[in-house]
Write a structure and sequence with these properties.
The protein is mainly alpha-helical. The chain has one domain. Helix content is 76%, strand content 0%. Helix 1 packs antiparallel against helix 2. One of its GO terms (biological process) is GPI anchor biosynthetic process. This is Phosphatidylinositol N-acetylglucosaminyltransferase subunit Y-like. Keywords: Membrane, Transmembrane, Transmembrane helix.
Length: 70
């Protein structure tokens, strides 16, 4: 399994790469971001969702760990 420091560096890089890839592939990238069936919508949603998930997962794990030790 990957260490936390590798994931902290890897997740934003992969997310930004996906954002730039979808910007290069989709012809109407800035205009089509409001429709949920567009590629642009998910390319902007993914870089936001993954760090938020990692943040809340980490802090719930830390809260459980601190609660158990105190």
């Amino acid at each position: 399994m990957f260490s936390f420091s590798v994931m902290v560096g890897l997740v934003p890089i992969v997310s930004i790469f996906g954002l730039f890839f979808s910007a290069a592939v989709d012809d109407n990238f800035p205009q089509g971001c409001t429709s949920s069936n567009s590629l642009c919508f998910y390319s902007l949603l993914l870089p936001v969702t993954i760090p938020v998930y990692v943040f809340f997962h980490l802090f719930s794990w830390m809260g459980t760990k601190l609660f158990r030790h105190n």
